[in-house]
Specification:
The chain is α+β, with helices and mostly antiparallel strands. Helices cover 44% and strands 23% of the residues. Strands 1-2-4-3 form a 4-stranded antiparallel sheet, covered by helices on one side. β1 and β2 form a beta hairpin. One of its GO terms (molecular function) is protein dimerization activity.
Length: 118
């Protein structure tokens, strides 16, 4: 997404309150909505080192998510964020592969049925 000056707006911003350590961070994801927010929150909350994970959409007319992660202090918040994104990509790839295999099998089955009717 370009701004008025033509520069690209960042896709991800990291916001950290003054005086806080790496275990409590807010990630701002631009051009995203509940589709990514809910799935990513689910993946991150499976991590036992995460104490809190939540997201909010600031306003319905804005397409950005404020994504907050707080760990138990053993690891920085960026680690479960990165891991959650990677695990979500793995799950999505598995769903896509399964769909493609099923579609191929369905088409072959119906192709064979059509030929049998002739």
């Amino acid at each position: 997404m370009a701004t008025a000056e033509g520069a690209k707006k960042p896709v991800l911003e990291v916001v950290q309150a003054e005086g806080c350590d790496d275990s409590s961070v807010t990630f701002v994801l631009h051009d995203e909505d509940h589709t990514l927010g809910n799935a990513l929150q689910y993946m991150i909350m499976k991590n036992p080192d995460v104490e809190f994970c939540g997201y909010s959409i600031t306003h319905p007319s804005e397409s950005k998510i404020n994504f907050r992660i707080q760990t138990r202090g053993r690891i920085p918040s960026v680690e479960p964020f990165r891991r959650g994104l990677n695990e979500l990509m793995t799950v999505c790839q598995h769903v896509l592969n399964t769909l493609e295999v099923s579609m191929k099998a369905y088409k072959e089955q119906h192709k064979q049925e059509a030929m049998d009717q002739l």
